[in-house]
Amino acid sequence: METQDLLNRVKEDDVKFISLQFTDVTGAVKSVDIPSHRLQEALEDGIWFDGSSVEGFSRIQESDMRLVIDPKTYTVLPWSPLEMRRARVFCDIYQPDGTEFPGDPRGTLKRTLARLKEERGWIFNVGPEPEFFLFKRNGPQAIHPVPHDVGGYFDFSANDDAVRVRTELMGALAGMGLEVEMGHHEVALGQHEIDFRFADALQTADNVLTLKYTVKAIAAQHGLVASFMPKPIFGINGSGMHCHQSLFDTQGRNLFFDEQDRYCLSPLAYNFIAGQLLHARALSAVVAPTVNSYKRLVPGYEAPVYIGWAQINRSALIRIPQYTQGRNQSIRAELRFPDPSANPYLAFTVMLAAALDGIDRTLQPPEALNNVNIYHLTPEEREERGIQELPGSLAEALRELEQDTVLQEALGPVLCEAFLREKWSEVEEYRMKVTDWELERYLELS
Fold this sequence. Notes:
Blueprint: H1 3-12, E1 17-23, E2 29-35, H2 39-45, E3 47-50, E4 64-69, E5 75-76, E6 86-94, H3 105-120, E7 122-137, E8 143-147, H4 161-175, E9 180-185, E10 191-196, E11 199-200, H5 201-221, E12 224-227, E13 241-249, H6 267-278, H7 280-287, H8 293-296, E14 306-307, E15 309-310, E16 318-319, E17 333-335, H9 344-360, H10 379-385, E18 388-389, H11 394-403, H12 405-411, H13 413-432, H14 436-442
Parallel strand pairs: 1-6, 15-16
Antiparallel strand pairs: 1-2, 3-4, 4-6, 5-6, 7-8, 7-10, 7-11, 7-12, 7-13, 9-10, 13-17, 14-18, 16-17
Helix pairs in contact: 3-9, 4-5, 6-9, 7-9, 7-11, 9-12, 11-13
């Protein structure tokens, strides 16, 4: 969308305010609102802000930052009232000297994808499956961690409030430009999933953020709290964000497809898979980036724990969905350990970097783990097969990232240092907290 097209759209939509959005290093959406009559000025000159106040951006002495609008990301926020209609655009971050800020998560992914297209003629496509919970509030502030419904996987009820809320969510997301493919109840009580069509990684990352804050905004209108926390309730399934991945060329051909192969995978696809498996332990720091993430990545709840790949094994870290005759474009690799707490820009950047390392080094993955329930193997059997485990904690994952130069180079020194600093701070704060479990276990027995 060109500048004049955007100005015309804003006028046609009777938008009063524009929300200029970007993310900090953790993936939290930051926003500054301007009245619509300032949009042309913002398009020409950008909007200046204090980067020192944003996590992972700048030191105080280097604080000036400029928001540069990406007109293609314009969409009206459907929950805003008609008389105060708001729209949003995503922005890239620039420094005072006019250069791109190396600590901008969106800009980092954008530059990575531009190099991929320019140097190799490839497009990295991602189709995520973000899961979330709907909870009831218990008073004006507290959240009562009880699911909003009693449904199970794919359950339907014509009178179910959750169905109505989810339907409203899907309609809002479709109105914002997402190609929603389906929405359904997930395995756990109160858990839902809304899937949208794959796209290039930048558009998909934008869509993930759009989905998250749209779900939260509309849930709030129904007196509910939407949570993308990976493991909000002990003893039931957590929320993941499986990512279906493929590489296309600029002519739209799926480079993963080879009809002569047993799994219809090309040599490039095998290299891609091998790279992600090799870097999986370090990848986990970015795609499962909270202390809570590692309470989801445990045996028994369908989340992957062990590093391997398969076609028909959902306990594997990477799964290859079954090929349907004639659907060559649908061949893909499903990475199953990301969760929706991840910053999608950073997650997709390192996922691609790991895969390209496998391609550049022509790495080969180990034998597929078809018809093997990895959870049922003994430690000795896993060792014999060469099956490694994912890190058991965020601290362990961060130590892996600190040793992985491929992923560090993909993020760049500014972004990598900011991410590690923020996440080690989270680990240290968590280490010092006293939890309810500790009180129940030790308060009277110690």
